Every structure is written in C-alpha cells, then in structure tokens.
Amino acid sequence: QVQLVESGGGLVQPGGSLRLSCAASGINRFYAMGWYRQAPGKQRELVGAITSGGNTNYADSVKGRFTISRDSAKNTVYLQMNSLKPEDTAVYYCNADGSYYGFRVFWGQGTQVTVSS
C-alpha cells in the first residue's frame, strides 16, 4: 500500500520560510517526486519536481526561492520555501510519479501553507 504523508505546512509571514516534507512508503526508487499546489479557485499546478536521478525542474514563479530535494534512503522528498509571498498561499500536495516506467501516480492528502501578515 502506497502512502505519501506530508508535513511542515502552516502560517508564515511574507518573506519567511517553511520546509515541507513528504515521507513515502510502498514505492520504489524509480519514482519521480514532486510538489504541486492548489489555491482557492485555481487549478492545481506544479511547483517543483525531482527525478530518481536528481534532476529538478520548477515553476517560474518559484525559481530562486524554492528548492526541492530527496533523501532516497529515507524515501522522503523536501520542499524548502524561502522568501514566501502571499501568492504562495495554497494547499501543497506531494506527488509520486512512476508513469515513465509504467507505474502509477500517487498523491498525498495535502498540507496548507498560508502566507500572511
């Protein structure tokens, strides 16, 4: 059974930082891992992703501020978010994508990030 458990969300002031964590179980090391977000009234969008080989990509809106990383030994992916802005407010979802190798795609339940003074 696959589980993606997110943690680290919360309320932070503009300019602050948060680190999200996603602990994955039941998946192998070939999965690409990513973070998506969905703000009220908007579509879910990719924030950042990292392949099993460590290649990363980011949404233009977060480049230079957010960093995605993974600890393969712990099967955990992180999203370090710096210089947060009110427009970063959203529910953040962890994603495990094995489709390149013919595996399934899985989602976490989401964690709320609110950037407000």
SSE inventory with pairings:
Blueprint: E1 3-7, E2 10-12, E3 18-25, E4 32-38, E5 45-50, E6 56-58, E7 66-71, E8 76-81, E9 90-97, E10 105-107, E11 111-115
Parallel strand pairs: 2-11
Antiparallel strand pairs: 1-3, 3-8, 4-5, 4-9, 5-6, 7-8, 9-10, 9-11
Any overview of this molecule?
The protein is mainly beta. It has no helices and 11 strands. The chain has strands at 3-7, 10-12, 18-25, 32-38, 45-50, 56-58, 66-71, 76-81, 90-97, 105-107, 111-115. The strands form 2 sheets. Strands 2, 4, 5, 6, 9, 10 and 11 form a 7-stranded mixed sheet that branches. It has a 4-stranded antiparallel sheet with strand order 1-3-8-7, with no helix packed on it. Strand 9 and strand 10 (105-107) form a beta hairpin. The chain is globular, with a radius of gyration of 14 Å.
Structure summarized in a few sentences:
With about 120 residues, this protein is mainly beta. It is about 0% helix and about 50% strand.
Instruction: Give the terminus-to-terminus CA distance.
Output: 40 Å
Helix content: under 10%
Q: How many alpha or pi helices?
A: 0
Q: Kindly report the average pLDDT value.
A: 96
Which structural class is indicated by helix and strand composition? mainly beta
- The helix/strand series, from N terminus to C terminus, equals EEEEEEEEEEE
Uncertain segments: none
Query: What amount of the residues lies in strands?
Result: over 45%
What global shape is seen? globular
The major β-sheet equals: 7 strands, mixed
Radius of gyration: 14 Å
Total beta-strand segments: 11
